[in-house]
């Protein structure tokens, strides 16, 4: 009897185990199917959003082609068709600097080994060893977003120097979205190759402030928050780190990521951005003394500086501030602090161009950040005059 009871209990236990196993198996099947469906949906959504984001970039380029700075609509449309292929985002990876300009050959845009083609005279001062070697570093405005090769700021400076009888070999090392630290590293890499200029021009400052506002901390490149930093003691953790915000499903549920901006932290972030910028200026000045090259630093203008804005420009100013609240204020604050600091010290190392377009009523800007070839023309006149003054014979 006891044997039968034990057998019965064993049989019941086995059945319970079988039922539990079947239940677990069913759950795993359901979870597996659900996971497969979620993965398939994630892949489809990722593909959809990638296309949508590319179409948004194309739409922005088409809108830029309609900017009132362009008198020739066909030329503008042709340029931005090229630009869409020539400067696709994100930019290719590069060691130390995080990015480089992709090589491209076209009618309006030509980039070789990451360097934008610059106009250089082959007729004036044929003795090339007697030419000034000038390096330009900066972001997309200096690279020449919206401008043809021969009408970027470096190209126009080269032309104007040639017209004044000063031979110069000008190289445009600018890369879109570069902060000053990235430009400095690019310069150091050239010096490491024993490629030193007679004069180096750093043009920017705005991206240092913009990056601080965008990333929420100063001194880092744009997009650095999306990079995984793997160190030996955190490698295992870093390898499995997953950011929920990067999933397409998250975007489907919450909408496209909106940036908070930096209005609540303007003072602290502008202080940090200024300290980083000035640290880079001090470094370049220090090595210029040992390597015997001259330096020029420029703080670029921004659309909010322009007093007489066209309706097109006013619309783009409002759009840019809506996309990232505080982006214009933080740069204005950073510049005012810098100018105040340098005025009190009696130094005149950095040229502030905030009033370059202040009294210009005609169209200058393509969007909230970039100006057209007319803007480049005005800026190149200023830089050319400064270069000629720098090399003027001592009286």
Verbal overview:
With 395 residues, this protein is an alpha/beta fold. It contains twelve helices and eight strands. It has helices spanning 2-65, 73-86, 140-143, 153-163, 180-192, 206-215, 235-239, 248-254, 266-291, 311-323, 327-345, 373-390; strands at residues 104-105, 110-112, 115-116, 132-138, 168-172, 199-204, 294-299, 350-352. The strands form two sheets. Strands 5-4-6-7-8 form a five-stranded parallel sheet, with helices on both faces. A hairpin with a 4-residue loop joins β1 (104-105) and β2 (110-112). α6 crosses α11 (327-345). The longest helix has 64 residues, at 2-65. The protein is elongated.
Question: What features would you highlight for this structure?
Answer:
395 residues, alpha/beta, 52% helix
Q: What layout of secondary structure does this protein have?
A:
Layout (H helix, E strand, L loop, with lengths): L1 H64 L7 H14 L17 E2 L4 E3 L2 E2 L15 E7 L1 H4 L9 H11 L4 E5 L7 H13 L6 E6 L1 H10 L19 H5 L8 H7 L11 H26 L2 E6 L11 H13 L3 H19 L4 E3 L20 H18 L5
Helix pairs in contact: 1-2, 4-12, 6-9, 6-11, 9-11
Structure summary, number of beta strands = 8
Structural class: alpha/beta
Shape: elongated
Residues in helix, % = 40-55%
Sheet-strand content, in percent, reads: 5-15%
Short description:
It is built from twelve helices and eight strands. A five-stranded parallel beta sheet has the order 5-4-6-7-8, sandwiched between helices.
């Amino acid at each position: 009897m006891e044997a039968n009871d034990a057998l019965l209990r064993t049989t019941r236990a086995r059945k319970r185990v079988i039922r539990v196993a079947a239940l677990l198996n069913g759950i795993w099947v359901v979870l597996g199917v659900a996971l497969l469906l979620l993965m398939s949906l994630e892949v489809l959504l990722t593909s959809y959003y990638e296309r949508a984001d590319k179409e948004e970039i194309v739409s922005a380029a088409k809108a830029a082609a309609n900017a009132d700075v362009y008198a020739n609509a066909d030329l503008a449309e042709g340029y931005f068709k090229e630009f869409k292929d020539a400067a696709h985002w994100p930019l290719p990876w590069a060691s130390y600097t995080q990015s480089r300009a992709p090589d491209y050959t076209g009618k309006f845009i030509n980039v070789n080994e990451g360097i934008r083609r610059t106009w250089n005279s082959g007729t004036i001062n044929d003795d090339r060893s007697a030419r000034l070697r000038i390096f330009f570093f900066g972001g997309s405005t200096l690279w020449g977003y919206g401008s043809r090769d021969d009408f970027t700021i470096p190209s126009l400076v080269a032309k104007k120097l040639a017209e004044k009888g000063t031979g110069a070999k000008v190289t445009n090392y600018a890369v879109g979205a570069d902060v000053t630290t990235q430009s400095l590293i690019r310069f150091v890499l050239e010096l490491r190759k024993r490629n030193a200029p007679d004069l180096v021009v750093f043009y920017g400052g705005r991206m240092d402030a913009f990056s601080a506002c965008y990333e929420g901390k100063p001194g880092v490149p744009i997009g650095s928050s999306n990079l995984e930093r793997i160190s030996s003691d955190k490698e295992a953790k870093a390898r499995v780190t997953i950011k929920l915000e990067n999933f397409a499903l998250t975007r489907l549920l919450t909408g496209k990521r909106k940036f908070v901006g930096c209005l609540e932290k303007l003072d602290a972030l502008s202080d940090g951005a200024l300290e980083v910028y000035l640290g880079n200026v001090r470094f370049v000045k220090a090595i210029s003394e040992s390597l015997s090259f001259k330096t020029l630093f420029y703080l670029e203008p921004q659309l909010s500086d322009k007093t007489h804005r066209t309706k097109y420009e006013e619309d783009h100013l409002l759009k840019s501030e809506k996309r990232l609240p505080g982006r214009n204020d933080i740069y204005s604050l950073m510049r005012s602090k810098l100018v105040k600091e340098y005025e009190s010290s009696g130094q005149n190392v950095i040229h502030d161009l905030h009033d370059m377009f202040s009294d210009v009523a005609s169209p200058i800007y393509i969007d909230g950040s970039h100006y057209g070839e007319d803007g480049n023309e005005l800026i190149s006149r200023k830089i050319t005059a400064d270069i000629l003054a720098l090399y003027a014979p001592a009286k």
